[in-house]
Structures are given as structure tokens and as C-alpha cells.
Amino acid sequence: MKRVETQPVETTVYSLSGAAPGPIADSDRREGDRLTTLYRVGSILIEQKRELCLIKNISAGGMMLRLYCSVAESTPVTIELKSGQPISGRISWTRDHHAGVSFDQPIDVIDILSATMDGPRPRMPRVEIECFATLREGANTIRVKVCNVSQGGAKIACETLLPHGADVIITLPGLPPQPGVACWTDGGFTGITFNRLLPLSELVAWLQERRNTHHSAS
């Protein structure tokens, strides 16, 4: 019997973009009880004082944090991930309990992502991407835009309303077709849960290939 999730799961989002994440728009906010949150935990060093934080979004140029302390814009900080890498930067913006950090030097997001493979309970991080995919539901085949992907599924922008629990097959360029289930729909976006986990090593290799192709085309 297949298991269908009824709610979106909010996790740390990784991006290959060189830009630091900007503030959250009011239209992007969601009620906390509608989501299960699995953000990556880190620590932030502010003026020799260490505080815990949640990492909501990380790119090559910066990150968005959920903080539990007050900090002023332009303050120099150092963020440490669980894997132990210190990353230096400055607070670029603050809003409510959130803050943006611009790194002093760009980081290799794929190296950070690969580090999640260590340990007995690997994470299932989401990675922001910009590509189109083919989605098949029954006899219908449609082209969809993929917003992010993880080992366990993908978030797509889709004009066609997919029935909750519908069996689908999604094909991303360069990856084998992935059978899955439409598990949630919200504001023109749909979450697809894969029937089988995509190996993290395969996901990382695919991301490296996409990054190399993008750099070659630039």
C-alpha cells in the first residue's frame, strides 16, 4: 500500500546560484501548522558569542537563517554547519526572526551537499533548479517546470491540476524516469513524492553535470 503525504514538508533549500537569498516576501509566508519543518541546524558566531540557528536556504553567495537572537545589518558573522566548515560573511538584511548572510567568498554548494552523505541517517536536502521536465499522468503527458528536487521528490509548477494521490511518472533531463505520487498542491505548485529514493550520489553527479554545462555555456 503506497503512502501519500497530505502536507508539504519544508526543508533546507540548496541553490547553485551565486546570489545570496533575499528577504521572504509576505506572499511566500505560510502558516507554521501547515508544514513539517526539517531545516538544517547550524551555529552562528556573532561578536564571539555562539548561537544556534536554522538554515532555510543556502547558495554559493549566501544563506537565509532563522535566528533566535537580535543582530544588526552589516555585522560580521561566522556560520558553522554540522560538518564543521566555518563560513564567514556579513548580515545583509534582517526581517522578523530571519536574516540574510552574504559570504565573503563564494562556496561550493555541491561540496556542502555531498557532506550530507556522511553518517548512518543521510539527509534529504532540496536543491533549487531551473529546468523543464515531462510529467505523465495516465494517458496525459505535460511539460512542467521543476522548482526543486530532492532524493525523495520534486516540486513543480504545473497549470494542470493533478488529483491528490495521482500516480505519475516524471522525467528530468539527464535522469531516468521517476515513478511517483502527487502528494500536495498549493497555489499552482505540486509536490511529487518518488516511489523510490534517488541515490544521493546520483543526485550530486547530476547537479555537477548541470553546473558544468551551465558554466560551459556562459
Structure characterization notes:
The chain is mainly beta. The chain folds into 2 domains: 9-117, predicted glycosyltransferase like domains (Thrombin, subunit H), CATH 2.40.10.220; 127-217, Beta Barrel (Thrombin, subunit H), CATH 2.40.10.220. It is built from 2 helices and 15 strands. The chain has helices at residues 109-114, 200-217; strands at residues 9-11, 13-15, 36-38, 40-46, 49-58, 62-67, 76-81, 86-95, 98-103, 126-137, 140-149, 153-157, 167-171, 178-186, 189-194. Strands 2, 4, 5, 6, 7, 8, 9, 10, 11, 12, 13, 14 and 15 form a 13-stranded mixed beta sheet that branches. It has a two-stranded parallel ribbon with strand order 1-3.
Q: Given the C-alpha coordinates, what overall shape results?
A: elongated
Give unreliable regions as ranges: 1-6, 29-35
The helix fraction, in percent, is 10-25%
The fourth-level CATH homologous superfamily of the largest domain is predicted glycosyltransferase like domains
Reading the helices and strands in chain order gives EEEEEEEEEHEEEEEEH
The CATH class designation of the largest domain is Mainly Beta
Counting structural domains, the number is 2
Kindly identify the CATH topology of the largest domain: Thrombin, subunit H
Q: Helix tally?
A: 2
Integer-rounded radius of gyration: 18 Å
Described by strand count, sense and barrel closure, the largest sheet is: 13 strands, mixed
- Total strands: the figure is 15
Average per-residue pLDDT, rounded, comes to 82
Which CATH-level-2 architecture of the largest domain?
Answer: Beta Barrel
